[in-house]
Specification:
single chain; about 120 residues; alpha/beta; 5-stranded parallel beta sheet; 6 helices; about 45% helix
Amino acid sequence: MAAPLLLVLRSAEWSDRWLAISLALTAAAHGEPVWLALSGAALRDFAAGSLDAGAPAAAAAARVGSLAAMLEEGRRDLGIRVVACDTAARLEGLDLGALAGRLEVTSLPALWRATREGRVVAL
């Protein structure tokens, strides 16, 4: 198996989230293994179900759908792994049990090892 593309998303900005999720979907649709690692504001909002917050009016005109729905579809149909480092999850005070099935909790060393031969994009 090829080394994954690791997209690290921590931004609170909708445009950064759109870019990360769009890149994840595109790479996965082309058969690449993709891990979307969330931290900070992106992890908080993912856990709260508010990834779509801050969408500009132009998003609807451009026919950009819900980021949360796009990510769920990519997870379900394309095998995108949505992950968070255990420390990042603890720093956000998340109830990991409530996120089971939606978010994989891993360690930072595991993320590092998974991408030795892969690519990393941070947003």
